[in-house]
Structures are given as structure tokens and as C-alpha cells.
TrEMBL record:
Domain UDENN: 17-476
PANTHER family: LD41638P
Family named by the database record: Belongs to the DENND6 family.
Name of this chain's protein: UDENN domain-containing protein
Cellular component GO terms, alphabetical: recycling endosome
Length: 500
């Protein structure tokens, strides 16, 4: 007789699934040390996946500071029912893991140190918020404390279910302010205005704001103009592999890259951190359905496996973004020769043969020279500035707004209204839209020596976008927000207490 799915009671299960402490046992590998609440019916396979995704694959005995990172795995535990009564309801089939990894010297251990990770598993993808909770739980210096886990659980149990708007949440002696936007692809979440008031303190967390900062990530980039290459690939829903030395840098880069194209939702698979033990079918490998993805990895063998699988299936090779400490200033543009003394065109030196990092070329968009100069000047200041992130985020948010403006204009003037008064966009015609762009123009600057080349680049980018899954994810978001707004569902986003 089939077991009935366990229906969670209380507020905690509307926000999260469980806290897990994973310990790296040198004899058997990763293992579960604490599961709280202890009766969550995870399958053995899911517990194993959580364990393996909770540790860095590259061992660095010099790691002294905590590493904070994220991962996402498929829910293969049929008795774990994921739900939340209000929008956002969370995912019904994905576990989002947020981790704090700590390595401490311990002379009683075989290796001279122990490694533990505190993981929060949720069906909501609120990485910055979850990271703040874990930081609060581990600030006393203990990462494996059953009393702290129980206290955190009890306070979250008293919270009302998440909904769009502001939440004031009591948590371990402080109030955490959380803002949940109507959609995760709202641009510039968590970024204060360009001229904030003195009283406008950065106290709240936005549920979907990116983790990490370009102030750090840019120092590992091959060059500044690669931002435009990556932006194009993300807008067109192409695949990207981020290779970094740590899971923290990898997951922060994935999060920050996806933020660049807001409010266009990336329609591919997102895996902020993957290991060799991951389910590769989820990204179309080993028998999975071919689909675009952006993933973060630290294992060079995994990179080689993914590239080989793409070549075997005759799929487009994913773009590789290799983040590393190259030494010297970050160049504005790539040098085409790998032998140039300041070149960051590296060959990934992998056992069994290297993987060449293809020098990408921007196919459509023209770089903004003013922004390039600003970023270059900020990078020269090193760690003395926190202005780099806002500059990059605002520039690409404006670029995306300019990009979708002609589509919004076309939809507003050509959509069909049904007898019931409901708008629908089934009559969208790419040739007619391109004619509209040709007639009314766009603020986006395209590459090309003359008008003909620039017009070809313009039509090429818009046509590729309208044929990509991202166009439909953006259109779905647009329709759902218009429907919610017309029903008055977005007007109740005022501050609300979430305690019982």
C-alpha cells in the first residue's frame, strides 16, 4: 500500500524543509551529522546528493574563513511535500540548498582538521535571505549546535507563510526584514537608489537579490568586455559554464550573471554549484532532454565531461567563463594571442589534454565606452571601492530595459483583445515586429561600421531572442503580472507582520 505524502504542519514548512549538518568523514566521505526536524522523509539518494553538494571538491588546507554557497537539486523524495499557500509558492520539484562550510584545525583528526557544513534546504530560492539566517546561526562560532537549530526552527515555525511584500521576521534575538518582489526577475533588487536619503539605510534583504558582488567577481574576469559577451548569451538563453576555484565564487558569479538580464527571466536550467556526483540528466547530459543551462563548477574533470558530452551530441559548445587570479590588472578587451604577456586567454590544463577557452566575440551589441572607462578606473582601486557593483548592475538593467522597449511597444499596439476583454499575444509575428523596430528604432547600440551592418546586428539579435525560450519566459512573466495587477493582487505589498 502506497504511503500518503506527509503534509507538513506549522509555518516552518512554508519557508523551508530542513536544516542539515554535514560532516566530512575521512573514512567514508560526507555524512549526515544532524537532520532537523529529524522526521523529514528524505530519500537516501537525496540525502547523499545534499551531502556531496555541501562540500568543496577542491581541498584547500589553507581555507580559514567560512565559505557560503548555493546549490539546487531535484526533489526525489516523494514523501516530502513542497508547498506554500501564497504566491510565491516556491518550487514543487526542486530543493534549494544554502550552505556555510567551515574548516577547523583538529589535531585529533587524521588529516589534522575537520570539515562541516550547515545546510538549509528550502523550496524557495531566496539565497541572500537564507544566507543571512545561516550567518546568524553560526556567528557564535559553532556550526553544529542542536540547540541553535531547534531555536531557529521554533522561531520560523511561528512565522506566517511568505507572500509578496515586506516581512518583519524575529530571528535569534534580532528582526530580519525581508522584501519579496512580485517576480524574481524584477531588476535592481537590493540596490539602493543612486542618491539615497540619509535615513535610507540598507537594512532589508530582497528575496531575489543576487548574492556576491561584481566588486569581487570582476577581479577574476578575463576582461571587462566579456560582460557583454556573457550578457548576449544569457539574453539568448545559451549555455554557460562558470569555472572557479571555490563553490562560493562559482555560485556568486552565476547569481550575479543572471541578474544582468533582469527583467528577462533566464529559461534554462540554473545550477549555482555542481559536483561530479550531480544528476547530469538535469542539464541534458547522460540521457537528459537537451536544454540550455548555466552552472558553476570547481572540478576540471567535470568541465571536460560536460564539454565532451556536448560534442558527442553535436550540440553547441557551452561558453566557458574561467574565473581565476591571473595577476595584473583586468584588461578592457581580450588579446587574441595566448602568448601575449597580458593575455588572459588561457588553456585549461586538464589531465588527459587541455581544453581551449575559445575567444568569444560579441556578435551584436556595442560596448559602452563610458561604462568601460568607469569599470576600468574602479578596478584600479582594488578593494577600496564598493561602487563597481552598482555601476554594472544599473548599466545592464538600463540596457535590458532599452532592449525590451520595442517589444513592449509592438505588443501594446498590435495585441488582440478577445470578447471577454482579456489580452493575449498569440498573434505575435516576428517579421511584423522587426518591421516595427525598423520603423520606430531602438535605443540599444549595435556593432557595425555602417547603418546596414548595425541594422543587420539589430535584426539578428531581436530575431534570435524572439525564437529563444527566454522570449516565452519573459512573455509569461509579463502576462502573469498584468493579470495580477488587473485583479488588484499586487496592491497589497505593504509592510506586514509575519508572526502569529
Amino acid at each position: 500500500m502506497d504511503r500518503e505524502p506527509v503534509i507538513p504542519t506549522g509555518g516552518f514548512q512554508h519557508w523551508a524543509v530542513a536544516f542539515i549538518v554535514c560532516n566530512f568523514n575521512v573514512d567514508v566521505g560526507p555524512e549526515i551529522e544532524i537532520l532537523y526536524p529529524p522526521d523529514v522523509p528524505f530519500t537516501t539518494a537525496d540525502l547523499s546528493a545534499i551531502c556531496f553538494n555541501s562540500f568543496p571538491e577542491q581541498q584547500n588546507t589553507e581555507t580559514a574563513e567560512d565559505l557560503a554557497f548555493n546549490f539546487a537539486i531535484t526533489n526525489n523524495s516523494p514523501d516530502v511535500k513542497l508547498s506554500s499557500p501564497n504566491a510565491p509558492h516556491g518550487s514543487a520539484d526542486t530543493f534549494y540548498g544554502t550552505c556555510v562550510f567551515r574548516q577547523e584545525f583538529d589535531h585529533s583528526m587524521k588529516r589534522g582538521f575537520n570539515q562541516r557544513t550547515l545546510v538549509m534546504i528550502s523550496h524557495h530560492n531566496f539565497p541572500s535571505f537564507h544566507s543571512r539566517l545561516l550567518q546568524k546561526m553560526t556567528e557564535t562560532g559553532v556550526i553544529s549546535d542542536p540547540v541553535t537549530l531547534q531555536a531557529a526552527y521554533n522561531q520560523m515555525f511561528a512565522w506566517r507563510p511568505p507572500k509578496v511584500g515586506r516581512h518583519e521576521l524575529p530571528f535569534l534575538g534580532s528582526i530580519v526584514t525581508l522584501d519579496i518582489a512580485p517576480h524574481r526577475s524584477f531588476p535592481l533588487q537590493g540596490l539602493p537608489g543612486p542618491t539615497p536619503l540619509i535615513s535610507d539605510s540598507r537594512s532589508s534583504i530582497y528575496a531575489y537579490e543576487p548574492i556576491g558582488s561584481w566588486d569581487n567577481i570582476m577581479h577574476f574576469m578575463p576582461c571587462i568586455t566579456d560582460l557583454y559577451v556573457l550578457y548576449e548569451k544569457l539574453v539568448l538563453c545559451e549555455s554557460i559554464i562558470v569555472v572557479a576555484k571555490s563553490p562560493q565564487l562559482a555560485s556568486e558569479a552565476v547569481s550575479s550573471l543572471l541578474d544582468l538580464i533582469c527583467p528577462v527571466p533566464y529559461a534554462g536550467v540554473v545550477k549555482p554549484y555542481m559536483t561530479m556526483q550531480a544528476d547530469f540528466k538535469s542539464i541534458g547530459i547522460d540521457g537528459g532532454t537537451p536544454q540550455s543551462f548555466i552552472i558553476g563548477i570547481t572540478n576540471p574533470f567535470l568541465l571536460k565531461r560536460i564539454i565532451a558530452a556536448a560534442e558527442i551530441s553535436h550540440r553547441m559548445r557551452p561558453h566557458i567563463l574561467y574565473l581565476q587570479e591571473f595577476g595584473g590588472p583586468v584588461p578592457t578587451r581580450r588579446h587574441h594571442s595566448i602568448h601575449h604577456k597580458s593575455s588572459r586567454n588561457v588553456l585549461l590544463d586538464l589531465p588527459g589534454g587541455g581544453i581551449e577557452v575559445h575567444t568569444p566575440s560579441k556578435r551584436f551589441l556595442k560596448s559602452d565606452p563610458t561604462v568601460l572607462s568607469q569599470v576600468e578606473a574602479m578596478l584600479k582601486l582594488g578593494d577600496q571601492t564598493r561602487e563597481l557593483g552598482p555601476i554594472i548592475r544599473r548599466h545592464f538593467a538600463e540596457l535590458t530595459a532599452q532592449f525590451v522597449a520595442p517589444i513592449n511597444r509592438y505588443l501594446a499596439t498590435s495585441n488582440v483583445v478577445t470578447p471577454g476583454g482579456n489580452n493575449r499575444y498569440a498573434s505575435f509575428s516576428i517579421p511584423e515586429f522587426l518591421s516595427s523596430v525598423s520603423k520606430y528604432g531602438t535605443s540599444v547600440k549595435f556593432r557595425g561600421q555602417g547603418p546596414i551592418q548595425r541594422h543587420r546586428a539589430r535584426d539578428g539579435l531581436y530575431e534570435s531572442f524572439c525564437n529563444s525560450p527566454n522570449f516565452y519566459s519573459w512573455l509569461e512573466m509579463k502576462v502573469s503580472l498584468e493579470t495580477a495587477a488587473s485583479a488588484g493582487m499586487l496592491s497589497g505589498s505593504a509592510t506586514s507582520s509575519t508572526t502569529t
